[in-house]
Amino acid sequence: MKPGKTWLLCLIFLSVAGCEKQGSDSNSGSDWLLALGATTQLRATPTDGGTVQTPTMSLTVPQGALEEETTITYQPIEMPEGDGSIAPLQAGYKFGPAGLQFNKPAVLKICYDAKDVIARGLQEKTMQIQYHDPDTGEFVSMGGDVDLVNHCVTSPIYHFSTYVLTAQILAVTNNAPTIGGASFFPGRLIEGLPATVRSSIRDWDPGSAIATARFYYRTAGSGAAFQNIAMLPEANDGAGQFFTAKIPGVDITAAGLEYYIEAFDTLNASRTRPAAAPTTFSTVAGQLPHPTTPIRFQTTVTQMTAGFSRDLTVQVRGNVSGTNYPVPADTLSFAGGKGTTARPNWLSTRYTAEIMGSSALDATYGSLNLSQPVTVYPGLLTRIEVLYNGAVLPDPLNVDAGSVTQLDAVGYDAYDNFTFVLPNFTTAGGIGSFGGPANYAQLFAANLAVDTSGTITATVGGLSATYNIFLNGSGAACQFDVGLFDSSCLYN
Fold this sequence. Notes:
Number of domains: 4
Number of helices: 1
Number of strands: 44
Shape: elongated
Strand order of the largest sheet: 1-4-5-11-7-8
Oligomer: single chain
Low-confidence stretches: 1-41
Mean pLDDT: 85
């Protein structure tokens, strides 16, 4: 993303012609598709993102998901043929530009006619949103949270393609686990770099659960024996029952991989994907690393304010296409202890600035290192202090009558970062006053004969600090003309 560039997200979609939420008298699922309608545009900004909304579909593009102005097209599609236990139904959508990668997942929600689902003998709880490859016929599950009240399925998506609403065809007896295909990060493998494979693996039977899941792979075209690694639950995910495995970089070449997935449930029923594996298998393409810029953050950050965070995504790039693929960083750090890091989701990196000074945002992925210089500035003020001769004002500060004392002030944030401030100075107790702009922060002590106590207060934006002042009186000549002793006089 270029600095200062305004993002414009134009969502061209097909809206509804007289379509309402379907109830008990609704039409069949074939009528649930949207009719051709008007073109609509949505302005998405880096700070606000944007959402397109129709009666049966919504797409939410979050802040930081895109890198530049993008025209996104949308259209409903005819339902593809099912695959094994996968039953496509009611709604499918093709988004473009095809293959567009998101740095953060967009959220797709598709609503459905529950009456039609039940009439077909399917269960709402098994509904998912699946990526469909029209060339191979393969389905890859994006998972999905099913809202049984409003009859909608919500799922994250990581790239643009064709997405279809599906349900699972279940048998009365024990069902083997369902395996929702494989998603790879990076989307096209890069020689020498690790890759994360994710799959939605579910067991739909009461009293049963997934026992084991394994990913089998070999170099494409090698004819070698398949090696395998365990797929484990993805802990930092809120979009379904996903299992992941990390393929070591040493096992990945530009030839790509041939692979399949196998899962067992606790009742010892098993399934492979593809069904006839290992006789048949799936493939994922590979490529060599880009010779000059194989890794980067999706955007450039040169400065941060303490207390604020920036979500960044590490991207890797090969030599075959110009696509920068998002990947989960292996390590992430805020150099010099100037801040902290976290993972807001399994893919992104969150850097939070804390300590002022020069630093860097660091990350690694496989054998690649990434470092972006950044300067941290002080954050929101939490307190202020008045200084005298470079130190905090003593309590009390002693001044002589008629003297001029130069003061200064600093502010501190929650992390004890300091910055010079220009507070409003006031006095109380008649000890004197502060000068104007030409002699800012100068305390002009009153020319009093007697010792006097008072205070000064410095105020910035509602924050204040008050200090005690002791004024040493100048004294006065003794007078006896009235025959009384004047205790305030000085005998010289």
